[in-house]
From TrEMBL:
Upper lineage: Bacteria, Bacillati, Actinomycetota, Actinomycetes, Kitasatosporales
TM ranges: 55-77, 89-106, 162-183, 189-210, 317-337
Region (Disordered): 1-30, 602-629
Pfam family, one: ABC_tran
Biased composition (Low complexity): 13-26, 615-629
Residue ranges occupied by any ABC transporter domain in the UniProt entry: 378-604
Membrane topology: Multi-pass membrane protein
GO cellular component, one term: plasma membrane
Matching PROSITE patterns: ABC_TM1F, ABC_TRANSPORTER_2
PANTHER family membership: ATP-BINDING CASSETTE SUB-FAMILY B, ATP-BINDING CASSETTE SUB-FAMILY B MEMBER 6
Domain ABC transmembrane type-1: 148-323
Signal peptide bounds: none
Name the UniProt record assigns to this protein: ABC transporter ATP-binding protein
Subcellular location: Cell membrane
Amino acid sequence: MTGAPDDVSGAHGSNDSRGSSHSGSGRRAEQRALRRVAAEGLPFLRARTRVLRGLLGWSLLEFAQTFAGGYAVARALDDGFLAGEPRTGTLWLALAAVAVVPAFLAQRGVFAGLADLVEPLRDGLVRRATARALTTEGGNPTTGTGAVSRVTHQSEIARDGWAGLVLALRGFVFTSAGALAGLATLSPLLLVVVLPPLLLGTGLFLATLIPMGARQRDYLDADEAFAAHTGRTTAALRDIAATGAADPIAGRSRELAEAQTAAARSLARWSALRIIALAVGERLPPVLLLAAAPWLMDHGLTTGGLIGAFTYLTTSLAPALNALLAALGTAGGRLLVVLDRFTGRAELPPDPAAAPDGRGAVHRTVPRTAAVVPVPRAELRQVSFAYGPRARPVLDRLDLRLLPGDHLAVVGPSGSGKSTLAAVLAGVARPTAGEVRWLGRPAAGQEPTAVRTLLPQQPYVFTGTLRDNLRYLRPGAPDGDLAAAVTAIGLDALAARLGGLDAPLDPRRLSQGERQLVALGRAHVATAPLLVLDEATSHLDPAAEARAETALAARADTLVVVAHRLSSARRAARVLVMDGTRTEEGTPDELLTRSALFRELTGRWAPPQAPEAPPGQADQADQAVRSSR
Ligand SMILES: Nc1ncnc2c1ncn2[C@@H]1O[C@H](COP(=O)(O)OP(=O)(O)OP(=O)(O)O)[C@@H](O)[C@H]1O
């Protein structure tokens, strides 16, 4: 299988837009995140019981003030103004006013205690994330500091979200406790009227939290995928027109736009449910109180008690509930996402905003330490693939994990499915069953070109300049990176022959090997974390191939090579041998002992080593090797 041009294959890759299964996995992800954050959060709180006790003490003053507010109003009416005793009424109201003073002091105490609860969280997150960023991005101080500043920013979000949540939760618990105690004191029957809608509204709201968090994730993913696709398409309009790829690209754009619309609609539906929950919890109790007033008064509730109950509902319970639900809905959601990143993932995903040209933290990760569990760059989970409903499967329940720093060679006889595997891994072909994941998330819905570069055997080289061609996957690439690619890949001779980077380049005047070199140079300039070479060096001589592969292995974060020669497999740390739908994986040495097919391929490959040839002559050398297969 040969591939379409990189960008085109990425653009019309058959990643499906989000459907219900994606939402389901979003919900599960949200539940997992919640469990993970709870598992780490509880020990944090347990270690701070003294601070929590302090907050509790201050909060009791707020309880007292809330209680006094409604109760004093009731007494002021019943024992004072309605009983013809205005002095008594005034005294009760004065008492309610005085109760505000300790509550004011309590606020000061709460804020002081809050700092002891919030700052250690932030410090801990920064420490953890900084250590992690420096460990996983060792050897690259630039991206290391980028990651550090990124996590510092996210830890600030966590701190603010956590502080908002503690304040709102604490306020709600003590205010509602004060109000409910007051209502019970005025008449226990008031609880019969007020509690059901209050509990129903709160429960309904809590039930929306996880699904709504999942929808928010879906929406953000869809939004990012669409924005990334639009950015890349806009930058490549000329080439899209030149290659006649407008239709598939427009189709992909439509698909992404529809996915975004569907995600927005789903989010809006859940928001509507949330508004209903708020209305039930906040607005229904006073309405029910009014409706039940005659019955309550028949059962002994006084006029003052009724007004006092209204005071509780409107000045205490409703604002506290509103503040809690607002904090849970906004700060809580953000906090969960950020804490999930800190607790659940070894690395934050590459941040396209880390540099204007999209050069995120995607360089090769040098050492992996035992303490860090890196996020797989790509993963196949039980993936099957067939070219048609009745066709024989090419891949059958294949599992494969590619971690940062991995270099995997894929070998096998012709027709064994190597190119199919490359296409599925790169998101160009959709699996018939199973799941492809990139950077720890389902590949479906992610923008393929942001995650991987796929170089097919027949490269796409267009009329223009060498500079244009090298910058094709990263339009803003600085000259220094182009020069580094030219030297590393071995494009110097071609650049000199053409007359420099800005001299006109006519693809028809390049040999197959030279076209492959240009594409390899382009892959060196690109910064997607996963690089897949599908016989992309087949027209190079062994020396040129070794040079290009070594350069790309050092440059790419994770490299997969559909191997053309034994030397490619020998250079890789791991080899996947494909034999029909059967596969074997291991180091080259392990496979020499374990796999008969690998030994056979090795024997077939080994004898003829073509003489080294400059790129211009690479095709002849290549043919010598190919004819031997
Ligand atoms: N577009 C297609 N439609 C139908 N069948 C296909 C298609 N592309 C490949 N196949 C079949 O799928 C199987 C695997 O093909 P694939 O190209 O992945 O193998 P390969 O190992 O890369 O082969 P080679 O080394 O010759 O490139 C083969 O039987 C092939 O005939």
